[in-house]
Specification:
By secondary structure, the protein is α/β, with parallel strands linked by helices. It is globular. The longest helix has 24 residues. It has 2 domains: about 170 residues, Glucose-6-phosphate isomerase like protein, domain 1 (Rossmann fold, 3-Layer(aba) Sandwich); about 30 residues, no CATH class. It has a 5-stranded parallel β-sheet, sandwiched between helices. The mean pLDDT is about 95.
Length: about 210
Amino acid sequence: MPDKYLEKLFKRFPEITPIRNDINNAFEIIKKCYLNEKTLFICGNGGSASDSEHLVAELMKGFVLSRKIIDPEILSRFDTLYSEDGKILSNSLQNGLRAVSLMSHPSLYSAYSNDVNPEMVFAQQLFVLARQGDVLMAISTSGNARNVRRAMQVANVKGVDTILLTGNSGGKCASLAKCSIKVPANETYIIQEYHLPIYHTLALMLEEYFYGGK
């Protein structure tokens, strides 16, 4: 069950046990997103930008469980269309959970920053890409990153649920979030050290829920 990963997390980091409900709420929000075949978007700056890319990697391919393609219709189509190549494709490809890091569009990022407003880049991406029912995970150690806040504002306008992964204060972004995960630290590097095991745990819980019995 996904809860086992929460227990392991709190055994290693007992000081974050008080935010258990917030982590579990984030899991439920993302789970609902995926049950409805929607997309998780993630954004952040600096180390949090790297965290955005890292979490996408854990969701889009196998993390600790096998995610082999087992859908007989898909397997049959690979075989029918491509024969031997189809076997290579179906044996190599893995199921995944749709996730997009808003740091993954460097040409758009630099062009929009130069031509319009660097504060609005994440907001612009989300405005174009996101649909109602999607989820935005915003990562900001201070909770005050302007570009992250703008993206959260757009998310709320478009009916996109928002999860904030942040530090002890929550900053200005906290009031915009449907769910805030505030780790018990104020120093940037310590906040980031808590963020990684938390989003790893969320990835493990989601993988267990969607692929644990398959």
